[in-house]
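Working notes for the structural subgroup meeting. M.R. asked for a predicted model of this chain before we commit to crystallization trials. I am recording the input and output together here so anyone reviewing the notebook later can reproduce the run.

Input as submitted:
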Amino acid sequence: MTLYPANNPTAQAVDSVMIYIFGLSLLLLIGITIVTIYFVIRYHRSRHPEPTSQVDHSFVLETLWTVLPTLIVLTMFWYGWVNYVGLTEVPDDAIEVKATARMWSWQFEYEDGRRESRLYVPVDTPVKVRLYSADVLHSFFVPAFRVKKDTVPGIETYVWFQAPAPGSYDIFCAEYCGAGHADMTTTVEALSAEAYAAWLANEGSDSGHHRGLTVMEEQGCLGCHSLDGSAGIGPTLFELAGEPRRVEIGAETTEVIIDEAYLIRAIREAAYEIVEGYPAMMPSYDETSINAADLQAVVDYL
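Returned structure, recorded in token form:
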């Protein structure tokens, strides 16, 4: 596992609290252990076969072991609360990106309507990621920035972070969400100011990509379906045109020929015809998810 340094605001907030609590806990552990060992040796039964002390209480000790733990717990709470609030207060100059989680992919939508399967951000700029789920509970987790937040169906949540340097930073789903959970990964691509401006202007993008392939990458289709015939969570998309396919419609199994009409139904009404041997887990994509032009591009590509 990659270990990322705490060189960004959110990581510093989380790590400082962890170090503080861990340091105090370690100090207490060492202190209690030393005292315990001392008492075991000093008051071993071989040295003192019979108890000699008649002391039944100590006001000073009782005060200390009541006040000190209370103060320690209160400082832990205060320090944790202050840094937690910092994780929820988004800087005013933050850019916003909408992230939609679905089984089993991430889609990032920018203010200009652009959609990507990876999260492109400029370095040294706060980024607010508005989190949505299209189906079940997921969790947006970026270890490098120490941010993790559940994406809950019907509820908007958010995180913010600031990338300190150009690079690629892992994004995981940290909430078990089904058979493809382990493959629900992507990256934050932190770009320099110049590279990000060029990306916004579409410079350096792969203009050779067919629009249909781009849409499938944006929607995370390739997380479940392969393009080369290899096995996956869903049936492969390799050389489909004109091929027969056995599907289950209700309680009946029938054979269909893969054509344009079938592909449109498979995307718009995914639960209507289930490919034999595969679970009924693909969501249907309506006009708001894939518009008519992009749907036709996907069908043409396939």
